[in-house]
Amino acid sequence: MSEMTKRERVYTAMSRQMPDRVPKSASFTPAIQEKFEKATGATDAAVYFDYDATGVGFAGPQEAVDWSRWYPQGLPEGTGISEYGTAHKPGSYYHFFQLDYPMKNVTSVKEMEEFPWPDYAPAYRHEHIERQVTELHDAGWYIQGCVGHIWENSWQIVSMEKLMMDFLEQPDQAAYVLDRVTDNALIMAKRFAEADCDSLLCGDDVGMQQKLMMHPNTWREWLKPRWAKVWKAAKEIKPDIQIWYHSDGNIEDIIPDLIEIGLDILNPVQPECMDPEKLKAQYGDRLAFWGCVGTQTTFPFGTPDEMRATIKWLIETAGKGGGLFLAPTHVLEPEVPWENIAAYFEAIEEYGRY
Protein backbone atom coordinates (compact mmCIF):
# COMPACT_ATOMS: atom_id res chain seq x y z
CA MET A 1 0.00 0.00 0.00
CA SER A 2 1.33 3.46 -0.87
CA GLU A 3 2.22 5.93 1.87
CA MET A 4 -0.73 7.98 3.11
CA THR A 5 -0.75 11.47 4.54
CA LYS A 6 -1.47 11.68 8.25
CA ARG A 7 -4.96 12.94 7.46
CA GLU A 8 -5.67 10.09 5.07
CA ARG A 9 -4.22 7.54 7.49
CA VAL A 10 -6.22 8.59 10.54
CA TYR A 11 -9.45 9.27 8.69
CA THR A 12 -9.23 5.87 6.98
CA ALA A 13 -8.49 4.03 10.23
CA MET A 14 -11.21 5.88 12.14
CA SER A 15 -13.64 5.04 9.32
CA ARG A 16 -12.94 1.38 10.20
CA GLN A 17 -10.99 0.75 7.03
CA MET A 18 -7.39 -0.30 6.37
CA PRO A 19 -4.79 2.48 6.40
CA ASP A 20 -1.19 2.00 5.30
CA ARG A 21 -0.16 1.71 8.95
CA VAL A 22 -1.57 2.15 12.44
CA PRO A 23 -1.69 5.83 13.47
CA LYS A 24 -0.25 6.81 16.84
CA SER A 25 0.45 9.51 19.41
CA ALA A 26 1.25 10.00 23.12
CA SER A 27 1.06 12.75 25.75
CA PHE A 28 3.82 13.48 28.27
CA THR A 29 3.84 14.99 31.74
CA PRO A 30 6.69 17.46 32.43
CA ALA A 31 8.82 14.70 34.01
CA ILE A 32 8.43 12.48 30.95
CA GLN A 33 9.18 15.41 28.66
CA GLU A 34 12.48 15.77 30.52
CA LYS A 35 13.23 12.07 30.01
CA PHE A 36 12.39 12.43 26.32
CA GLU A 37 14.68 15.42 25.84
CA LYS A 38 17.54 13.74 27.70
CA ALA A 39 17.22 10.49 25.74
CA THR A 40 16.76 11.97 22.27
CA GLY A 41 18.17 15.49 22.29
CA ALA A 42 14.89 16.61 20.70
CA THR A 43 12.22 18.88 22.18
CA ASP A 44 9.08 18.09 20.13
CA ALA A 45 7.83 14.53 20.57
CA ALA A 46 5.14 14.96 17.91
CA VAL A 47 7.81 15.66 15.32
CA TYR A 48 10.38 13.17 16.62
CA PHE A 49 7.94 10.25 16.77
CA ASP A 50 5.85 11.40 13.80
CA TYR A 51 2.46 11.66 15.50
CA ASP A 52 -0.54 11.46 13.20
CA ALA A 53 -3.04 13.97 14.64
CA THR A 54 -3.08 17.51 15.96
CA GLY A 55 -5.66 19.99 17.16
CA VAL A 56 -7.01 23.52 16.93
CA GLY A 57 -8.94 25.52 19.50
CA PHE A 58 -10.60 28.75 20.50
CA ALA A 59 -8.62 31.75 21.71
CA GLY A 60 -8.94 32.72 25.35
CA PRO A 61 -11.05 35.61 26.64
CA GLN A 62 -9.64 39.12 26.35
CA GLU A 63 -11.01 40.44 29.64
CA ALA A 64 -10.05 39.15 33.07
CA VAL A 65 -12.81 38.20 35.51
CA ASP A 66 -12.91 39.31 39.14
CA TRP A 67 -13.60 36.05 40.97
CA SER A 68 -13.51 37.50 44.49
CA ARG A 69 -17.29 37.28 44.96
CA TRP A 70 -17.17 33.58 44.23
CA TYR A 71 -14.19 32.87 46.49
CA PRO A 72 -14.79 35.18 49.47
CA GLN A 73 -12.44 33.07 51.60
CA GLY A 74 -9.60 33.85 49.18
CA LEU A 75 -7.30 31.43 47.38
CA PRO A 76 -3.69 30.41 48.04
CA GLU A 77 -0.81 31.92 46.10
CA GLY A 78 -0.15 30.12 42.84
CA THR A 79 -3.81 29.24 42.20
CA GLY A 80 -5.00 29.27 38.60
CA ILE A 81 -8.64 29.79 37.68
CA SER A 82 -10.25 28.28 34.60
CA GLU A 83 -12.58 30.12 32.27
CA TYR A 84 -15.48 28.50 34.13
CA GLY A 85 -14.14 29.74 37.46
CA THR A 86 -12.77 26.45 38.76
CA ALA A 87 -9.80 27.08 41.04
CA HIS A 88 -6.71 24.92 40.53
CA LYS A 89 -4.88 25.22 43.83
CA PRO A 90 -1.25 24.11 44.15
CA GLY A 91 -0.86 20.46 45.11
CA SER A 92 1.94 18.70 46.90
CA TYR A 93 2.80 15.94 44.42
CA TYR A 94 4.33 16.31 40.95
CA HIS A 95 2.03 18.24 38.60
CA PHE A 96 -1.21 17.52 40.49
CA PHE A 97 -3.46 20.23 41.93
CA GLN A 98 -6.56 20.61 44.11
CA LEU A 99 -9.90 21.93 42.85
CA ASP A 100 -12.30 24.43 44.35
CA TYR A 101 -15.70 25.36 42.94
CA PRO A 102 -17.08 28.89 42.53
CA MET A 103 -20.77 28.00 42.86
CA LYS A 104 -20.56 25.25 45.44
CA ASN A 105 -22.73 27.26 47.86
CA VAL A 106 -25.23 28.67 45.38
CA THR A 107 -28.87 27.90 46.25
CA SER A 108 -30.92 29.29 43.34
CA VAL A 109 -31.02 29.66 39.58
CA LYS A 110 -31.11 33.44 40.09
CA GLU A 111 -27.65 33.32 41.63
CA MET A 112 -26.48 31.10 38.78
CA GLU A 113 -27.69 33.69 36.28
CA GLU A 114 -25.39 36.24 37.95
CA PHE A 115 -22.32 34.04 37.42
CA PRO A 116 -19.75 35.42 34.90
CA TRP A 117 -20.35 32.72 32.29
CA PRO A 118 -17.73 32.57 29.54
CA ASP A 119 -18.75 33.76 26.09
CA TYR A 120 -17.42 31.78 23.14
CA ALA A 121 -19.38 33.68 20.48
CA PRO A 122 -17.15 36.75 19.82
CA ALA A 123 -15.31 36.51 16.50
CA TYR A 124 -11.87 37.11 18.03
CA ARG A 125 -12.19 33.76 19.79
CA HIS A 126 -12.58 31.67 16.65
CA GLU A 127 -11.98 33.68 13.46
CA HIS A 128 -8.48 32.19 13.18
CA ILE A 129 -9.65 28.58 13.00
CA GLU A 130 -10.22 28.35 9.21
CA ARG A 131 -6.72 29.63 8.53
CA GLN A 132 -5.15 27.20 10.99
CA VAL A 133 -7.10 24.26 9.59
CA THR A 134 -6.13 25.13 6.02
CA GLU A 135 -2.45 25.38 6.93
CA LEU A 136 -2.49 22.10 8.85
CA HIS A 137 -4.42 20.29 6.13
CA ASP A 138 -1.91 21.55 3.57
CA ALA A 139 0.79 19.99 5.77
CA GLY A 140 -1.11 16.68 5.77
CA TRP A 141 -2.44 16.65 9.34
CA TYR A 142 -5.64 15.08 10.68
CA ILE A 143 -7.20 17.85 12.76
CA GLN A 144 -9.32 17.67 15.90
CA GLY A 145 -11.36 20.56 17.27
CA CYS A 146 -11.69 20.27 21.04
CA VAL A 147 -15.19 20.95 22.37
CA GLY A 148 -14.29 19.77 25.86
CA HIS A 149 -16.73 18.48 28.48
CA ILE A 150 -20.31 18.93 29.65
CA TRP A 151 -20.48 16.81 32.82
CA GLU A 152 -16.93 17.65 33.95
CA ASN A 153 -17.15 21.38 33.33
CA SER A 154 -20.51 21.48 35.08
CA TRP A 155 -19.52 19.65 38.25
CA GLN A 156 -16.28 21.61 38.41
CA ILE A 157 -18.39 24.77 38.67
CA VAL A 158 -20.74 23.65 41.46
CA SER A 159 -18.90 20.55 42.84
CA MET A 160 -19.72 16.95 42.03
CA GLU A 161 -21.63 16.51 45.30
CA LYS A 162 -23.94 19.45 44.57
CA LEU A 163 -24.57 18.50 40.94
CA MET A 164 -25.37 14.90 41.88
CA MET A 165 -27.75 16.07 44.61
CA ASP A 166 -29.29 18.66 42.30
CA PHE A 167 -30.20 15.88 39.87
CA LEU A 168 -32.57 14.69 42.59
CA GLU A 169 -33.46 17.73 44.70
CA GLN A 170 -32.91 20.85 42.55
CA PRO A 171 -33.25 19.71 38.93
CA ASP A 172 -33.77 23.30 37.76
CA GLN A 173 -30.29 24.21 39.02
CA ALA A 174 -28.69 21.11 37.50
CA ALA A 175 -30.36 21.78 34.15
CA TYR A 176 -29.33 25.44 34.16
CA VAL A 177 -25.63 24.68 34.63
CA LEU A 178 -25.60 21.81 32.13
CA ASP A 179 -27.46 23.88 29.55
CA ARG A 180 -25.10 26.86 29.84
CA VAL A 181 -22.11 24.58 29.30
CA THR A 182 -23.88 22.78 26.44
CA ASP A 183 -24.62 26.09 24.73
CA ASN A 184 -20.90 26.86 24.64
CA ALA A 185 -20.14 23.35 23.37
CA LEU A 186 -22.63 23.96 20.56
CA ILE A 187 -20.87 27.16 19.51
CA MET A 188 -17.52 25.37 19.40
CA ALA A 189 -18.87 22.30 17.61
CA LYS A 190 -20.47 24.38 14.86
CA ARG A 191 -17.35 26.48 14.32
CA PHE A 192 -15.06 23.43 14.13
CA ALA A 193 -17.41 21.84 11.59
CA GLU A 194 -17.58 25.04 9.55
CA ALA A 195 -13.78 25.22 9.57
CA ASP A 196 -13.52 21.66 8.13
CA CYS A 197 -11.97 19.94 11.15
CA ASP A 198 -11.75 16.18 10.65
CA SER A 199 -12.87 15.29 14.15
CA LEU A 200 -14.80 16.74 17.07
CA LEU A 201 -12.92 15.96 20.29
CA CYS A 202 -15.12 15.81 23.37
CA GLY A 203 -15.86 13.69 26.39
CA ASP A 204 -16.66 13.31 30.05
CA ASP A 205 -15.09 11.06 32.67
CA VAL A 206 -18.21 9.19 33.77
CA GLY A 207 -16.59 5.79 34.36
CA MET A 208 -14.97 4.26 37.42
CA GLN A 209 -12.75 1.21 37.35
CA GLN A 210 -15.62 -1.30 37.18
CA LYS A 211 -18.76 0.68 36.27
CA LEU A 212 -20.28 4.09 35.65
CA MET A 213 -20.15 6.63 38.47
CA MET A 214 -23.89 7.15 38.06
CA HIS A 215 -26.78 4.91 37.05
CA PRO A 216 -26.94 4.52 33.25
CA ASN A 217 -30.44 6.00 33.29
CA THR A 218 -29.11 9.09 35.05
CA TRP A 219 -26.55 9.52 32.29
CA ARG A 220 -29.29 8.94 29.69
CA GLU A 221 -31.52 11.59 31.25
CA TRP A 222 -28.97 14.33 31.87
CA LEU A 223 -26.06 13.88 29.45
CA LYS A 224 -27.10 11.79 26.47
CA PRO A 225 -29.56 14.34 24.99
CA ARG A 226 -27.10 17.19 25.43
CA TRP A 227 -24.28 15.37 23.64
CA ALA A 228 -26.75 14.27 20.97
CA LYS A 229 -27.62 17.93 20.37
CA VAL A 230 -23.96 18.95 20.05
CA TRP A 231 -23.01 16.09 17.73
CA LYS A 232 -26.07 16.55 15.54
CA ALA A 233 -25.29 20.26 15.11
CA ALA A 234 -21.76 19.47 13.93
CA LYS A 235 -22.85 16.72 11.54
CA GLU A 236 -25.58 18.90 10.03
CA ILE A 237 -22.80 21.27 8.94
CA LYS A 238 -20.17 18.66 8.03
CA PRO A 239 -21.74 15.20 7.73
CA ASP A 240 -18.40 13.37 7.58
CA ILE A 241 -16.92 14.94 10.71
CA GLN A 242 -15.83 12.15 13.06
CA ILE A 243 -17.10 12.28 16.65
CA TRP A 244 -14.43 11.35 19.23
CA TYR A 245 -15.57 10.77 22.83
CA HIS A 246 -13.38 10.22 25.89
CA SER A 247 -14.21 8.62 29.19
CA ASP A 248 -11.84 6.82 31.47
CA GLY A 249 -13.00 3.66 33.21
CA ASN A 250 -15.66 1.10 32.36
CA ILE A 251 -18.50 2.66 30.38
CA GLU A 252 -19.75 -0.48 28.61
CA ASP A 253 -23.33 0.20 29.77
CA ILE A 254 -23.62 3.32 27.61
CA ILE A 255 -21.58 2.38 24.52
CA PRO A 256 -24.75 1.47 22.56
CA ASP A 257 -26.23 4.85 23.54
CA LEU A 258 -23.13 6.68 22.33
CA ILE A 259 -23.29 4.87 19.00
CA GLU A 260 -27.00 5.69 18.72
CA ILE A 261 -26.36 9.44 18.97
CA GLY A 262 -23.51 9.47 16.48
CA LEU A 263 -20.25 8.33 18.08
CA ASP A 264 -17.47 7.29 15.67
CA ILE A 265 -14.38 6.97 17.89
CA LEU A 266 -14.15 5.74 21.49
CA ASN A 267 -11.24 6.83 23.69
CA PRO A 268 -9.26 5.72 25.68
CA VAL A 269 -10.49 2.11 26.07
CA GLN A 270 -8.62 1.39 29.30
CA PRO A 271 -7.61 -2.29 29.06
CA GLU A 272 -7.68 -2.53 32.86
CA CYS A 273 -11.41 -1.69 32.72
CA MET A 274 -12.67 -2.84 29.30
CA ASP A 275 -11.33 -5.52 26.95
CA PRO A 276 -10.34 -4.00 23.57
CA GLU A 277 -10.61 -7.38 21.82
CA LYS A 278 -14.13 -7.88 23.18
CA LEU A 279 -15.22 -4.36 22.22
CA LYS A 280 -13.82 -4.87 18.71
CA ALA A 281 -15.90 -8.03 18.34
CA GLN A 282 -19.04 -6.32 19.64
CA TYR A 283 -18.79 -2.88 18.08
CA GLY A 284 -16.00 -2.93 15.51
CA ASP A 285 -18.47 -2.57 12.64
CA ARG A 286 -19.71 0.72 14.15
CA LEU A 287 -16.86 2.09 16.28
CA ALA A 288 -13.17 2.83 15.95
CA PHE A 289 -10.89 2.76 19.01
CA TRP A 290 -8.27 5.33 20.04
CA GLY A 291 -5.87 4.48 22.88
CA CYS A 292 -5.89 0.95 24.33
CA VAL A 293 -2.34 0.92 25.78
CA GLY A 294 -2.64 0.83 29.57
CA THR A 295 -1.13 3.58 31.70
CA GLN A 296 -2.10 1.73 34.89
CA THR A 297 -0.27 -1.46 33.88
CA THR A 298 1.86 -1.86 30.77
CA PHE A 299 3.45 1.57 30.58
CA PRO A 300 4.58 1.92 34.23
CA PHE A 301 4.96 -1.71 35.28
CA GLY A 302 5.56 -3.79 32.15
CA THR A 303 8.87 -4.63 30.56
CA PRO A 304 9.88 -3.50 27.07
CA ASP A 305 9.20 -7.05 25.83
CA GLU A 306 5.74 -6.96 27.40
CA MET A 307 5.10 -3.61 25.74
CA ARG A 308 6.06 -5.01 22.35
CA ALA A 309 3.82 -8.04 22.89
CA THR A 310 0.92 -5.78 23.91
CA ILE A 311 1.27 -3.61 20.82
CA LYS A 312 1.42 -6.67 18.56
CA TRP A 313 -1.69 -8.14 20.22
CA LEU A 314 -3.66 -4.89 19.94
CA ILE A 315 -2.85 -4.51 16.25
CA GLU A 316 -3.87 -8.11 15.58
CA THR A 317 -7.13 -7.84 17.53
CA ALA A 318 -8.49 -4.30 18.02
CA GLY A 319 -6.70 -3.22 14.84
CA LYS A 320 -7.82 -6.07 12.62
CA GLY A 321 -9.16 -4.59 9.40
CA GLY A 322 -8.45 -1.04 10.60
CA GLY A 323 -10.30 0.92 13.26
CA LEU A 324 -7.38 1.47 15.66
CA PHE A 325 -5.36 4.52 16.70
CA LEU A 326 -2.72 3.53 19.24
CA ALA A 327 -2.08 5.82 22.20
CA PRO A 328 -1.52 5.62 25.95
CA THR A 329 -4.84 5.64 27.77
CA HIS A 330 -3.78 8.79 29.62
CA VAL A 331 -0.89 11.21 29.86
CA LEU A 332 2.31 9.35 30.76
CA GLU A 333 3.16 9.87 34.43
CA PRO A 334 6.67 10.27 35.91
CA GLU A 335 7.08 6.62 36.98
CA VAL A 336 6.94 5.33 33.38
CA PRO A 337 10.41 4.05 32.36
CA TRP A 338 11.84 5.60 29.23
CA GLU A 339 12.61 2.10 27.92
CA ASN A 340 8.88 1.31 27.80
CA ILE A 341 8.12 4.49 25.89
CA ALA A 342 10.84 3.69 23.36
CA ALA A 343 9.52 0.12 23.06
CA TYR A 344 6.00 1.44 22.44
CA PHE A 345 7.06 3.47 19.41
CA GLU A 346 9.47 0.80 18.16
CA ALA A 347 6.76 -1.87 18.30
CA ILE A 348 4.28 0.27 16.36
CA GLU A 349 6.91 0.73 13.68
CA GLU A 350 7.65 -3.00 13.63
CA TYR A 351 4.14 -4.45 13.74
CA GLY A 352 1.93 -1.57 12.63
CA ARG A 353 2.20 -1.74 8.85
CA TYR A 354 -0.72 -3.39 7.09
Strand content: 5-15%
Mean pLDDT: 97
Number of domains: 1
Main sheet makeup: 7 strands, parallel
Total helices: the number is 15
Which structural class do you get from the secondary structure elements? Answer: alpha/beta
What is the architecture at the second tier of CATH? Alpha-Beta Barrel
Total number of strands: 10
Q: What is the strand arrangement across the widest sheet?
A: 1-5-6-7-8-9-10
What global shape is seen? Answer: globular
Helicity, as a percent range: 40-55%
- What is the CATH class name? Alpha Beta
Any idea of the CATH topology? TIM Barrel
Whole-number radius of gyration? 21 Å
SSE string: HHHEEEEHHEHHHEHHEHEHEHHEH
Catalogue the unreliable spans: none
Q: Measure the end-to-end span.
A: 8 Å
